[in-house]
What we know:
Strand content: 15-25%
Strand order of the largest sheet: 2-1-5-4-3
Number of strands: 19
Low-confidence stretches: 1-18, 155-167
Structural class: alpha+beta
Radius of gyration: 61 Å
Distance between the termini: 62 Å
Number of helices: 9
Order of helices and strands: HHHEEHEEEEEEEHEEEHHEEEEEEHHE
Helix content: 25-40%
Mean pLDDT: 81
Amino acid sequence: MALPGWLLRARALTGASGEPRSGRGSLLSVGILVVGVVVTGLLAWSCHRADEGTERRLLRVRADQAAVVLQAAVGTIVEPLESTVAAEATVPAGRRRPAFPVLLAPEVGDGRLFVHASLWEVRSSGVRMVASLGEDRLLVRRRLETRLRVAAASAAPAPRTVPARAPNVTVQRITGAGQDRIGYALGRDLSGGGQLVVYAERRIPADRRAAVDRDPAFVGLDYAIYLGTPSADALTTTDQQPASLPLDGVTATVPVPFGDQTLTLVVRARERLGGRLSGDLPWLVLLAGAAITAGALLTGRRLTRARLSAERDAGTIDGLYRDLDAAFAVQSDSFGRLQRALLPRTTPQVCGLEVASHYRAAATETEVGGDWFSALGVAERSIAVVIGDVSGHGIDAVAEMARARFTLRALLAEGHGPGEALARTAAQFADGEDWRIITAAVGVLDADSGEATICSAGHPPPLLVHADGRASLLDLVPAAPLGLVATRYPEHRFRLEPDESLVLYTDGLVERRAESPEVGQARLLEVVSRLAGRPVDDFAEALVSAMTGDAAGDDVAVLVVRRAGAPAPPG
């Protein structure tokens, strides 16, 4: 018995023993977990890296803004010194120098830009302090005076503290007994020879806070400013405790030119610059990935359990179908034996006539069909042939076939002609309640004269095969099949010449799906002409094979009657 496609797929889900294969469920769960962890981890890492890069870029922008403010503050320190030395350098030698106290006095004193400022003349003959403002730190004065004299006496370039050419500024950190300071020296050449040097000192605030950190550019930033390379000794100002430096975490460093030195600005953001959502995104991705992975695991486990249940059910169904196959095989064998028992086992032997038959059941049907044939002697030298087809398949079709076969056989045996036998049978079947349609062709042939009478109840027209191999369809008047109405059946008479054959067949021989009957009949004429020369038994079987191939789509029955040729004249 053929099984539905869905059942075959259900069978494929089970092993040979019909037991479900459950190991794939564990592999599916492991696969979902591994993929979920890997994908979630990669996405979270990508979000973290993107957030970190964004924070660094934003911090760099803020650091550049703070550096611009710091550079502007440096300009405010250097500008008074440059203005003073430029103004004093224009005064002739030996004259009073009024610019120094006028320009620098407002910038020197407690709480002002400088705590000390002084003006110096450096010539080959010696070093002389011209003027001084603010605190006069003797130690600083002596050190500076000594350095300026050494530079003048050696005729070498001025030391670091005094640049060789204006307006370069020499910057130096001064660490003494008091508070740390930054010293600035700015020199300019005099027209009569020598140099004019202005020197000033700025106190480093005790709290290490820079005045520029009140600018909006420093809002939200921690900072440390170093004179030169960042180190504990180079620290100038910061908003942190010096012991907690250097700044940790994500930082940005910007150098700011400052005379012959460089101020190094290091900043760190106090809060996230890219917003809270950007920082929380990796955690959100982890949580979402964990939730999705858990949901996928739960769904996978449910699907696995459902699949295992389906496999178990499929195994049960498979067992039931095996039992059904066995039962159907017994039933089909019984029906087949019943059908074979209803078909004639032998054909009557009438001198001068050769009779052969062949039957082939459909390869695609699971139930027996209602095709039949019959041949019987009706007189000493005459034979009656019948072929028919009951619509449908199954035991009911076989029962109707047996009823029609034996009815026609009895009527023909009583001596009724083909038309009368069909009319009486039609009357019986028209009174019944069975819906099946029965087609049949009935003929009677005389062996001596070759006279033949045949009529058809809606059956395909028989073939007349001539001695030379030509074949043609008999032109019978159409009549209604049995089982519809009681009617009369016109008889067609013709003569069967020696070596000619009459071929009766059921529609399974010529009908194909998606093909008109005319095409099948044309193919039948061509095949019959090619096989006409074969012995009658071989001819019937070869005709069915040639027309249907290895597998017939419907039941096929063929009945062949050939009139023997005339005996050869004596030698």
